[in-house]
Amino acid sequence: MSRYDRSAFPPFAVTVDLVVLTVREHALCALLVRRGEPPFQGYWALPGGFVRPDEGLAEAASRELAEETGLRAHSTPGQGSAGAHLEQLATYGHPQRDPRMRVVSVAHLALAPDLPTPRPGGDARSARWAPVAELLGPGQAEGVPLAFDHGEILADGVERARSKIEYSSLATAFCPPEFTVGELRQVYEAVWGVALDPRNFHRKVTGTPGFLVPSGSTTTRQGGRPAQLFKAGGATVLNPPMLRPES
């Protein structure tokens, strides 16, 4: 190693960006922060930051998640409302994605139940939950594009969530520790952006081995007759899968 010339290759920075998704008022929403400093000052962006010299990628993503939401990270759905599901999404490294210098971003996807109104931190002027349908639909958020390549990262994160709840139990990461089948159906409807038949949905989720387990309790929080409460089961892969309706 004594002959290795570390100046042979130009240095570059590494960041982590977070696609933080939750369901609020029956809509899939993403966490955005308004940048308070250049570049893209005043633009809405995904939360994130530079990886510190003494930390790994997962550690940096967990730190940023805690700073932005106050949540600790876990990697298995159904571990309770105190944490958020966190997984690596993809890497983005276009040479011109950041005007400051060569910056490679390792994006992560975070999912959690109904989260409170966010508070800005770091170099963010403000923070808000924005409906994904507005951000990725024909009418983008207030007509303002997201900073950097965060629109692409957000789209990839949303598609990951939409596809993954088909074959895994990830949808329970949007639910509290105990939830009704109706509340789980609302998650699928919000993430997929479709209406599902309640009876067919109930039959599928309760008939999928290991998906849900009864908690032994009921609730009337949705009104009407008491509804049975469930917890996430031990299954991580759904067989048969919950196929997304064709749009």
What does this structure look like?
The chain is of the alpha+beta class. The chain is 23% helix and 28% strand. The protein has five helices and ten strands. The strands form two sheets. Strands 1, 2, 3, 4, 5, 6, 7 and 8 form an eight-stranded mixed β-sheet that branches. Strands 9-10 form a two-stranded antiparallel ribbon. Strand 1 (13-24) and strand 2 form a beta hairpin. The longest helix has 18 residues, at 150-167. 33% of the residues are buried.
Please trace the helix and strand order, writing H or E for each element.
Answer: EEEEHEEEEHHHHEE
What's the mean pLDDT score? 88
Strand count: 10
**Biggest β-sheet strands, sense, barrel:** 8 strands, mixed
Taking all Cα atoms into account, the compactness measure Rg is 20 Å
* N-to-C span: 57 Å
Low-confidence stretches: none
In short:
It contains 5 helices and 10 strands, in the order ββββαββββααααββ.
Which helices and strands occur, and which strands form pairs?
Layout lengths: L12 E12 L2 E9 L8 E2 L2 E3 L6 H13 L2 E3 L8 E10 L10 E9 L12 E8 H5 L13 H18 L13 H12 L5 H10 L4 E8 L7 E6 L15
Parallel strand pairs: 1-7, 5-6
Antiparallel strand pairs: 1-2, 1-4, 2-3, 2-8, 6-7, 9-10
